Amino acid sequence: MPRICFTGQLRGNDSHINELRRTTVLYSFSHFHLMPAIIYSSKDTAGYLIAEQLRRHHGFKMTSADERRWLNEEYNVQMMEIRAPLLEAEALQIESDYLIFASKHRSATAKPTLTVHATGNWGAKAEMGGRPGEVCYPQTSAMKHALRALAEQKFPDFEVSLECTHHGPTTTLSPLFFIELGSSEEQWRNPEAAKVVADAIMLAVKREQEQKYEQVALGIGGGHYCPDFTKIELETDWAFGHIVPAYAIDEASEEVLMQAVEKSDPEIAVLDWKGLKAEQRQKAIAFAEKAGLDWKKDDEVKKEGD
Q1: How many domains does the chain have?
Q2: Sign (positive/negative) of CA torsion 103, 109, 114, 118?
Q3: What pLDDT was estimated at residue 71?
Q4: Could you tell me if residue 152 is inside a domain?
Q5: Domain presence at residue 26
Q6: Residues of the domain holding 251
Q7: Rounded to 10 degrees, what is the CA torsion of 131, 133, 139, 142?
Q8: Residue 33 confidence (pLDDT)
């Protein structure tokens, strides 16, 4: 089983941290083996329903009632419930192969959407968890498998999309990604939509065991949702790690941009050319060259999928 521990720096609401302390145990075995871990919060309507579908349809068996843990032995993946909001799960440190956070997605438009993304804060504020000026270690390959699995199911009336890097947590030991069901209470409580997400999670876990995508890209430009990068993710072999939206690039320091490179190890930077102003293009190109990355316009990369 994955080993669970706490780091020295704990952030967020004290009651949430105390709850994580109460429900978390340090595991250490002589034949220690890392496995993926699915994390959801009991406070998250969509995440809870996704977990219900995983238990109902994918053979998860409870291994600890006190710690709220389940295990799928066929694919060697565990699932864990926490009571803290996922965005504030900085105190939870799981030494795992990688983490999948099953979550709700909220937007002002309430448009039915299924999304995946990495986590992080590009600027000096961290209003939705994580640390300012910090990004996570993204699980780029499994995230790509998850997006493709969502798209393959062609669930009616739902859009499938990559999102840019945003919100917490940012300090986990293991690489991660969020997979989300949105964007309003109506979708969060939709069991069929939750099953689509649950199925996509398990397909991603299975396919990650069979094939790893190693061509990693850093995305720069565009909006919060990433239609051009989504197309590249679905139709080429490139896997995005972090995506810096145009609205964040002006504030993003060279330090946090370099951190995104160090934590995702991309080969190229892909620029959403039309989604960047002239001065933003210059900043992106200068950074890519300083970081030792080749850079391409998004239209060039999209042609690889034609």
Answers
A1: 1
A2: negative
A3: 95
A4: no
A5: no
A6: 216-306
A7: 90
A8: 54
Q: Is residue 34 part of a domain?
A: no
- Is residue 25 in some structural domain? no
| pLDDT at site 305 | 78
Distance CA 241, CA 139 (A): 7
Per-residue model confidence as pLDDT tens digits over 106-149: 887 889 999 999 999 999 999 899 999 999 999 999 999 999 99
Residues of the chain with pLDDT under 50: 1-32
Q: What is the CATH number of the domain that holds 271?
A: 3.40.50.10700
Note the Cα 214 to chain centre separation in Å: 17
Report the candidate in 294, 245, 286 with the shortest Cα–Cα distance to residue 266.
294
User: Which among 4, 68, 76, 74 is positioned nearest to 35, based on CA atoms?
Assistant: 76
Global confidence as pTM = 0.89
